[in-house]
Structures are given as structure tokens and as C-alpha cells.
Give the backbone structure.
Amino acid sequence: MEAALKLDDYFTYADYCTWEDGERWELIDGVAYAMAPAPSEGHQSVSRDILGQLYIFLRGKQCKVFAAPFDVRLNADGADDTVVQPDILVVCDSSKLDGKGVVGAPDFVVEILSPSSLQHDLMTKFRLYMRSGVREYWIVDPESKTVNAHVFNGSGVNFKSAIYDEHDAAAPVEALEGCTINLSEVFEGM
């Protein structure tokens, strides 16, 4: 993701809603970040396979899986100045869905790295998701065929991490009891 492009202003969700539909932006603490152009084939393949496995696991359950673009307003009850669009997210509390996106923290978030989003996903979004109440955050690297899984404890300071790779046929999603993702299938053919 590029550096903030609208540097001189502070923005809220109300501002965000007035921007052109063809432009994709995220807001983090009022700073607007332009989103990268369309993802690569590899990025889309990884996204499709993780999304598919989550969809099958969650079918008939309370939790729902969504894919970008889908707005997540992480502090709508406060300044309402943070709107992100994770590659994949799972929400288990249906009251957080408002017809436009998610109001509050999803239970599980997946970001798939691209060269343009590397630093943003690894640092900025990691801290944002940890402090916002996301229960689990996966950073998927199609290049190295790895997943860095971070489970946050809700306090905003402590977490545990694990690394999985293309040989893991049952990488656990701790935020979704009983759910595993077959990374051998996700990274197959890459």
C-alpha cells in the first residue's frame, strides 16, 4: 500500500462515503491510504482457496465469511475515522453487520501480502487489529508460502503467534473452534 496520499486532512467515515466509487481507500486514524491496484493472480488464488475453505466450514453456522472489498469500521462508536478492507474476514456477531459492512472488530482477519502492501500489513494493520479487538489476524505471504498467525488476547498488548507453511494440512484458526485451513491446497501449484 502506498503512503498516505491525502496528507493535509483528517477524514472520517462520512468523508469516505463521498469519495468516487472507482477509487479504493482505507482510513486509519483519519489518514487516507490509497489501496493498491487489482491484486495479482497468485494473490487472488490464495484468497479464493482460503475463502472457500472458510465458507465450507462456516456453512450453517452463526459466523459469516466475507471478502474484499467489504468495509470494516473499527471505531464507529468513537471518532469513526478508521475504515479498512481486509482481504478476508469472519464475523460471528450478526449485530455488527449493518448492510454496508462491519461495525466493530471482526473475529478473524486475513491479509494477503503484495509487494505494495507489505509494510502496511505487517506493521500498521497488525497494531490496528490488535488494539481494535480482532481475535485473530493471519498475514499470508504467497511468495514464501507461509502464514503468520497472530491470536490477540483482547487487552491490546499480548498475543501469541505461530508460523505455518505450505506443508501444513491443518493450520488451526483459533478464533473459530474446530476450523483448520489446508495450506497444502492453498499454496498448491504456486
In short: The domain at 13-186 is CATH 3.90.1570.10 (tt1808, chain A).
